[in-house]
Specification:
The chain is of the alpha/beta class. The protein has two domains: 8-158, Rossmann fold (3-Layer(aba) Sandwich), CATH 3.40.50; 162-279, Rossmann fold. Helix content is 39%, strand content 16%. The chain has helices at residues 8-15, 17-25, 48-62, 95-104, 121-124, 143-155, 161-172, 177-180, 193-208, 244-251, 262-279, and strands spanning 41-45, 68-72, 84-89, 109-114, 127-130, 184-189, 211-216, 233-237, 254-257. The strands form two sheets. Strands 2-1-3-4-5 form a five-stranded parallel sheet, sandwiched between helices. Strands 7-6-8-9 form a four-stranded parallel sheet, with helices on both faces. Helix 4 (95-104) links the parallel strand 3 and strand 4 (109-114). The mean pLDDT is 93.
């Protein structure tokens, strides 16, 4: 890993997202490997990949693809008559994912979406969707996750061209100081963007050790609103519940919402995470206590 400049890898990787998304959207053979419409599907992952699984599950069901559940690999309920399991993992070495695939080998069809094509996942899954062009050097993950979701989103029949265009806008936009300097940020989403909210919060914690939280937007008023205050921020992805912006404003907190495609708005969140980490003198390419993959002792 190049450590010549703090955050250099993360900066390059998040800036490359629009181009890499476009490449994923153009794949023609790979979508055919995904479970067909009507199949009962479980989507699994760990960390960021779990949050992308949540978004895909919501998108697939909304598009009429059939029952789709998302699980953290360590907590997956796999004995529910699923027709297929889709595993998302950048490194292809995550222990919980490999253990789950081994447990269902020969019983349930498995599809792996992976960045590292030399990893054990390639032999562990029945079919592989390889995205090596989206793999990363930074420990803090940005483009692999969003590229995998762009690919999956396109597979549901969605037109992702506006998302790609909006991502370019997100990369060029000024970052509001209310976000870069906020004492605390809470991220909110609805439907498929709940996963994006969880991912944004995780990214901020990993890269800048910041206090962040995330919730479904309709749940925010059931308690979490209590921490909103001047100097803090609430960032909503996608649809905003009626009146929520006014309620947040009444607390003195900054309310952030964009007309950009929600996945493109996540790119802005990545940029804020990077900027906050650099201002704090941290290196998001080598975050505290974290490694690129979690590999547990047997």
């Amino acid at each position: 890993m190049d450590t010549s400049a703090a955050g250099a890898n993360m900066a390059e990787e998040l800036a490359s997202q629009p181009d890499v998304w476009a490449r994923a959207a153009e794949l023609s053979h790979e979508p055919k490997l995904l479970p067909q419409a009507g199949a009962r599907v479980a989507v699994i992952g760990c960390g960021t990949s779990w949050f992308m699984a949540q978004s895909y599950a919501a998108l697939r069901e909304r598009a009429g693809g059939g029952l789709t559940d998302a699980f953290a690999a360590s907590e997956a309920f796999i004995d529910r008559q699923y027709d297929a399991i889709v595993a998302i993992t950048r490194s292809g070495t995550t222990s919980e994912v490999l253990e789950l695939l081994a447990a269902v080998n020969g019983r349930i069809r498995t599809v792996g979406i992976v960045g590292d094509t030399s990893s054990p996942l390639v032999d562990a899954a029945d079919d592989i969707i390889a995205l090596p062009f989206a793999d990363e050097k930074s420990v803090v993950q940005t483009r692999f996750a969003t590229t995998a979701l762009t690919f999956l989103r396109a597979s549901t029949g969605a037109d992702v061209s506006q998302s790609i265009a909006d991502a370019r806008t997100a990369l060029a936009a000024d970052l509001p100081d209310e976000l870069v300097s906020a004492e605390q940020i809470t991220y909110l989403g609805r439907g498929w963007t709940v996963g994006l909210a969880h991912e944004a919060a995780l990214k901020m914690r990993e890269s800048s050790q910041a206090w962040t939280e995330s919730y479904p937007a309709m749940e925010y008023r059931h308690g979490p609103l209590a921490i909103a205050a001047p100097g803090r921020a609430v960032w909503a992805f996608g649809e905003v519940p009626s009146g929520l912006d006014d309620q947040v404003a009444a607390t003195g907190a900054h309310f952030e919402h964009s007309d950009l495609d929600p996945l493109a708005d996540l790119v802005r969140a990545h940029r804020v995470a990077l900027e906050r980490s650099l201002r704090a003198g941290l290196n998001p390419d080598l975050p505290r206590n974290l490694t690129r993959s979690v590999i547990l002792d047997a």
